[in-house]
Design goal:
The strands form 2 sheets. Strands 1-3-4-2 form a 4-stranded mixed beta sheet. Strand 3 and strand 4 form a beta hairpin. The termini are far apart. It is an alpha/beta fold. It contains 4 helices and 8 strands, in the order αβαβββαβαβββ. 52% of the residues lie in helices and 18% in strands.
Amino acid sequence: MDNSRKIIITLIILVVVLVIALTGAIIYIILQGNNNTNIPTTNNNINDIDDTNTYTNDIQSDDMTDAAEELARETFNSQFTSYEGDNLNAAQIRSLFSVIEESNLSNTEHQVTIDNTGIISEEELTDTGTYTVELVYGDDDYVDEIKITETSTTTPGNEDDMDKLLFNTKFTSYVGEITGEQFSNLLQVIQQSNSDTPDHQVVLTSNNLQQQDLNSINPTDTFVVTLTYDTEGYVQGINVDRKV
C-alpha cells in the first residue's frame, strides 16, 4: 500500500513537471511570435525614412533649380537696370544701345526690343541732351522692351524753357540722316531763324562741303546732321556732312 502511494505521488509530480514544462514552452513560442511580428514594423519604418529622404531631396532639388533661375534672371536684367531712370546723357544711351545689341546676339532666348515710340537710334541723340530710360518686363520677369525718350526740362510757367524748347524744335527734327531736299529746307529754316531771333544766331558748318556746294544741292544725296548747343541750352551750331 505504501509502495502504491509512493508511485501515485511520483506520477503526480511528473505530471506537474510536464505541465510546467509545457506551459513554459507555450509561453516561449508566444514570445518568439511577438518578436517576429515586430520585424515587419521595423522594415516599414525604414521604408518610411527612405521615402522621407527622397521627398526631401526632391524639395532641395527644386529649390536649387529655382535659385539658379532667379540668379540667371537677375544677372540678365542687371545689364539694363543700371540705365533705368532720368537725366542720362548721350554717352550713356549709346552704351545702352551697345548692351542691347550684344545681349540679343548672345542670348537668343530673351530678346530685347526698343520701343519705336521713343528714340530708336544713336543718330537721334545730341551731346547736350538728357534722356529717360524705362524698362518693360515680360511674363517671365525678364526685361523684353526698353523705351528711351528725351527728358523734358520745361516746367509749367517757365517761359524761358518754353522759348528754348520751341527754338530748338525747329532744328531737332533734322538730326540724323536727311535728303538733299530736306537739307535745302534746313538752310531756309536757319536763315529765317537768324533773322527772327538775332540773340540766338545759328552757324552752319561742314567737314566736306564748300560754300558753292550749297548752291547746287542734289535732292537725292544723303546728308548727316548734328547739333551743338550754347551754355543756355539753345542750338548754336549745325554741322552738315555729305554722306559718302
